[in-house]
Each structure stands twice: as structure tokens, then as C-alpha cells.
TrEMBL record:
This is Uncharacterized protein. It comes from the Eukaryota. InterPro entries: Ankyrin_rpt-contain_sf (IPR036770).
Length: 153
């Protein structure tokens, strides 16, 4: 479950066996590479050089601006599996769980899931980490996840 942490950690590149960093593995929704990276000691609270967090990338993938959960290329079930696994880790920090994603228009992970219209990811975030996900957390523009969701209806 999430722990208190002062801020992001920046990830180096490369898991030796899979040749993917944890951020790259979650971005591609590669469940095997994610598990390998985590078992090899990858930092679940890391951000890549673009400022993308592991949780944000698990939700959005590579091209978050164009993400479409209804398209098979989004790999919805794999993303949900990866997200479930990440959220079950004791080393996940509250910062990584709730911080605005600067490289994704400053939206929080919960706001990102709502904005991308991925209700299963919203549900997983809220149920896997009860009381730890900030439902009132604002993005860089002052919008909450509920505002993101209601703007799409």
C-alpha cells in the first residue's frame, strides 16, 4: 500500500533481462516486464526524464493524448492488471499515487483515468487504495477528477 514520500524519484533506463525500465514496461502494458522490473528492485515511485510516473503511464500508455480505452491497441485488460499489481505494492508512495503528472497537463492519476474515460481504472484506484487516493486532488488547472469525468458527459 502507499507510503508517505517527499517527492518523485527519477528512473534510470533499462531492466537488464527485459531491456525495459519500469516506466517503459508499464507504458507498454507488458505485465511480464513489469513484474520482472519490480522483482529486480525497480523504484515504483520513479518518474522518467519526461516526468511521467509509473502510475500515470500504467493508466495512459505512451500517447496519453490519443489514448482510447475502447481500442484494442490500448490493451485495457493488461493495463488494469498492471495497475492492480502496482497498487498492491507496499513501497508505493502517496506522492506517486496523487501527484499531478506534469508531462500530462498536470492531471493527477485519478483525474487522468477519469479524463480518459477508463472507469475500471478509476474503480481500481479507489478500491485498491481506500482513503489514500485524493478524490479532491486538483490538477495544475484546479480541476478535480469529478470535474474531469463530468466534463465528458
Amino acid at each position: 500500500m502507499a507510503t508517505l514520500s517527499s517527492g518523485p524519484h527519477h528512473a534510470g533506463r533499462g531492466c537488464h533481462s527485459t531491456k525495459l525500465s519500469l516506466v517503459d514496461a508499464v507504458t507498454k502494458a507488458d505485465e511480464t516486464a513489469v513484474l520482472f522490473a519490480l522483482e529486480s528492485g525497480a523504484d515504483i515511485n520513479a518518474e522518467d526524464q519526461a516526468g511521467r510516473s509509473v502510475i500515470g503511464c500504467a493508466i495512459a500508455g505512451e500517447r496519453w493524448e490519443d489514448a482510447d480505452a475502447s481500442d484494442t491497441s490500448y490493451k485495457l485488460q493488461q493495463r488494469l492488471n498492471v495497475l492492480n499489481d502496482l497498487l498492491s505494492r507496499d513501497s508505493l508512495s502517496l506522492y506517486a499515487l496523487n501527484a499531478p503528472q506534469n508531462s500530462m497537463r498536470g492531471v493527477t492519476p485519478l483525474g487522468l483515468a477519469a479524463w480518459l474515460n477508463v472507469p475500471d481504472a478509476v474503480k481500481i484506484l479507489l478500491e485498491a487504495c481506500p482513503g489514500l487516493v485524493s478524490v479532491d486532488g486538483m490538477d495544475a488547472l484546479g480541476a478535480t477528477p469529478l470535474m474531469c469525468e463530468s466534463s465528458d458527459t
